């Protein structure tokens, strides 16, 4: 049986809805937080290992922009390191389930982790970034020379900070989370 893009999207939406229900995520989550459904990247390409030694992937176009941005930063004495890139919807669901299993409430989890289907990481365009001397995934990253460099130059490579302070999604400030918005 051949599926059209619309049928695949409907299947994906059903999968996302089922995962949200299973995890206890409110049905109006996307509306409440002004999030758009993020399609999964179908062919992510390797970008090397992250700071924890895990292989990371991004969409081919975002990976190319990431490499160019890393080279430019290095030319300015800044080392940009990957912490996390592409994540499947299922992987995102496992992250949330681990947090639930650890006793965290879903409301708290959703302040720092997007619901499955709504993470920019699914698209293969998002990247969590750190630099030597700074703990990954901490607000203190915004005091690093790397964050200053990203603030000044990431736009040239079509990367933008997704969750600044006071963001319209009502989620935690994430100075480490940058997403590529190129063509």
Can you put this structure into words, describing what you see?
A four-stranded antiparallel beta sheet has the order 3-4-6-5. The chain contains six helices and six strands; from the N terminus they run H-H-E-E-H-E-H-H-E-H-E-E. The chain is an alpha+beta fold and 183 residues long. Helix 1 (5-23) runs parallel beside helix 4. It has one domain: Muramoyl-pentapeptide Carboxypeptidase, domain 2. The chain starts with a helix and ends with a strand. Strand 1 (45-49) and strand 2 (55-58) form a beta hairpin. The radius of gyration is 17 Å and the shape is globular. The model has no long low-confidence stretch (mean pLDDT 94). The protein has helices spanning 5-23, 29-33, 60-75, 89-101, 106-112, 145-153, and strands at residues 45-49, 55-58, 81-84, 126-130, 159-163, 174-180.
List the helices and strands and how they pair.
Blueprint lengths: L4 H19 L5 H5 L11 E5 L5 E4 L1 H16 L5 E4 L4 H13 L4 H7 L13 E5 L14 H9 L5 E5 L10 E7 L3
Antiparallel strand pairs: 1-2, 3-4, 4-6, 5-6
Helix pairs in contact: 1-4
Number of domains: 1
Q: How would you describe the oligomerization state of the chains in this entry?
A: single chain
Alpha carbon gap, first and last residue:
32 Å
Strand content: 15-25%
Give the helices and strands as they follow along the chain. Answer: HHEEHEHHEHEE
Q: Specify the CATH architecture.
A: 2-Layer Sandwich
